């Protein structure tokens, strides 16, 4: 059959609270009118106030989920989120090498906003070695970029230098999220960097703490790639989408964090 529409595949963790992870990814794909597939790489017991337990599936069962998706669907973009440990990362890297999807968006999930650890320390080296070179785009926030590079990123100049060094580690492009840098001007500045240079994406800073923004941003980029946007435009549209989803955010639990509005 040659008339299959394109699909986006998320390989990530499940958030029982419905705000982040696979649940946010599938809502984002649906909001972009893109068919969403999922391979669950980790399960979390979680609500708006934190993560109480994490369970990783056997690596061969994760591989079976990924293979099932590639065996049937026309996958234009893969989004990678919480991958939990080195075994899972190696399995994902093998599967990506075998199936060679056209675009891979890597959200290098390490620590939740609540402080919960979502990637074992020992897995960081595997992520850098095995996954960064397979990524079309990597989307770290500042704490994740600091762990990837092993140094502090304290200002805008350091962010520009970090983009260059992350690019040298192998991904096709970098979207470095600046939300953790407190800017007096009331803006959040994300940097998009590829072989052509570094460009700024600027939004007004909103006075909310939210859950699932990183997952949503990377999924929105993947969905925009499925819709045929070039990478820089896919990133610009995705940052706009997260900004809008934050404006409509709501509090479904007792925690003081917003869950995004996926419209
Ligand atoms: N839980 C899962 C399964 C995730 O994939 C993520 C995403 O990064 C999080 C929690 C953390 O989300 P946040 O840091 O936005 O609370």
TrEMBL record:
Q: In which pathway does it act?
A: Cofactor biosynthesis; thiamine diphosphate biosynthesis
Q: Which UniProt keywords apply?
A: Kinase, Transferase
Q: Does the keyword Chaperone apply?
A: no
Q: What is its EC number?
A: 2.7.1.49
Q: Highest taxon of the source? A: Bacteria
**Top EC class for this record:** transferase
The Swiss-Prot or TrEMBL record annotates one GO molecular function as: phosphomethylpyrimidine kinase activity
Q: Sorted alphabetically, which InterPro entries does this protein's record hold?
A: HMP/HMP-P_kinase_dom (IPR004399), PM/HMP-P_kinase-1 (IPR013749), Ribokinase-like (IPR029056)
Q: Which residues form the Pyridoxamine kinase/Phosphomethylpyrimidine kinase domain?
A: 15-256
Entry-linked PANTHER family: HYDROXYMETHYLPYRIMIDINE_PHOSPHOMETHYLPYRIMIDINE KINASE THI20-RELATED, PHOSPHOMETHYLPYRIMIDINE KINASE
* Stated name of the protein: hydroxymethylpyrimidine kinase
Origin organism is Luteimonas salinilitoris
